[in-house]
Design brief:
With about 110 residues, the chain is mainly alpha-helical. It folds into 2 domains: about 1-50, no CATH class; about 55-100, no CATH class. It has 4 helices and no strands. The chain has helices at about 1-15, 25-50, 55-60, 70-95. The radius of gyration is 24 Å and the shape is flat. The two termini are about 30 Å apart.
């Protein structure tokens, strides 16, 4: 039972939860700064996500235009797109061969 209690406490601590003290002012200040930190982290992640390259099959069909600051970024994007297309090709081949039967595997 102590294992689960400790795991829960560790999990709560990792997201900024601290045990309340006897001083309400200290608890309020700690909660305020924890909230500010998490809001900042959320804003940072939102900005990072907005700058990430998102390519879909439809955007490739439509003719995606990619801009980068260096040739290495373009080559990396080309490599990743080629790998993704190979995975998609294999997936579509498997789907075309699927006959609707269920397959059960014992472990």
């Amino acid at each position: 039972m102590d294992y689960y209690a400790n795991a829960t406490a560790d999990s709560a601590f990792s997201i900024g939860y601290v045990q309340p003290t006897k001083e309400p002012f200290v608890d309020i200040i700690a909660s305020f700064f924890t909230s500010i930190y998490h809001l900042g982290a959320t804003a940072y992640n939102a900005v990072q996500w907005s700058f990430s390259l998102q390519i879909t099959v439809q955007s490739l069909i439509d003719g995606t235009h990619i801009e980068a600051e260096s040739a290495e970024e373009i080559l990396l994007a080309e490599k990743l797109i080629a790998e993704a297309m190979e995975h998609l090709k294999k997936y579509l081949i498997e789907l075309s061969e699927f006959d609707g039967r269920e397959v059960h595997h014992e472990i």
